[in-house]
Queue: 4 jobs
Job 1
Amino acid sequence: GLLSCAQWTGIPVSWLLDDFPHLEYVSSHGMVFPGAKTPRQLLQIWCDAFDYLYDEIGSGIFNVTMHPEVIGRGARMLVLRGLIEHIKGKAGDFSFINFQIDFMEY
């Protein structure tokens, strides 16, 4: 569910729908695990996840996390374009919501 605290509302992140672990690397315990997916593989994963939500569940929130320094490079931008085209190609009414994130300094 949604986590709320004062003025903040957070939607939990799914690593399956996050570009970073697929395309970059994860560092843990002194080891580096490189992303194992090509942009085309990531697009297929995201399209399949959306299709499952659309075809099997019928409604819900499709919460994709994209980092500008990850998705914003070369062929990776085609993933974003392809996902939007795939979603728009389905019958029905969809809302694309834009969030502006303000980074807080600690």
Job 2
Amino acid sequence: LNRAKLGEQSSIDIIIANHIRMAIKLATRFHSSGAEMDDLVQEGVHGLLEAITRFDTSRNIQFSTFANYWILNSEICTSPVSHSMYQYGSSSPLYLASTSSCLVKQ
């Protein structure tokens, strides 16, 4: 993960290959809402890339937990589903405190 954060393409490819199933699984949630599956998966990969750049290895959380948020966030921004269904309030985990997402913070 450290080499991927430095921009090493082969490491980024390995991380995406290992986590693409999570992006596909989350994309199936929004497929019935009218968004194209290909677009949702592509946004999920974009969320994975965002998670790679934002992940802090010094914190005691798993990458998959962190990536799950960014994949979901990217797919919600693409999906026509109501954004109000997915609001993160004051109960958000601390590692999500500095988000620049389309999810509404209360």
Job 3
Amino acid sequence: NGPKEARDTKRKTDWTTLQKSLEEYYLEYSVYPPALNALSTGETPILSPIPADPTNTGVYVYTYTPANSNTTYTLTACLEDNQAIGVDIIAPVSPCATKTFRLLNHN
């Protein structure tokens, strides 16, 4: 289980980085970006490069979904360890077959 746990730990670390960067973007523009790549563009990029899932294939990709005119968002990632527990770890959500790591932001 070692490599799976290591990749899941990387996913959680990336999410913390992404969440902080999204909040910084929100403070600057009063909305969240339309896509994650907006964090790495402009005169002063907030985050570059944008973190990618350690496997970055199939269902193992990071999903960012802005909503409500970019005033809220959801970040999701499939975890490999089906026994994972903790804050923001929920039962599988499609397309994940194992646990899902999800961050919801509602400003």
Job 4
Amino acid sequence: IVDHRFRDDLVGFAQFGSADMDIVGIEYHIGFGIQKDGIFTGEDIAGLGYTQVSDNNSEEGVIDVFYGQNVSDWLNVKADLQYISSPGLNDDIDSALAFTLRFTSEF
């Protein structure tokens, strides 16, 4: 895993992993992306990422776009949209869109 801060408000990452197919069922994983702080306010973040896994027969790819905002001292809301090709490493399944909305609180 490599993380790099290009500026105070911009971070990038890249990662690679491989495994024994007989044990895990996945040959490799790659991922990379960027995160920008302070898009609209000083308390928000936005990012874009890509990840791919392979099992020798198929590849699943995910494009991930997210936006998060601190709405109070103790509450953060993060929206995430993912485009998934070959879900479950199955080429017979149509690509999918997944949306999540996450609420995180700290006490």
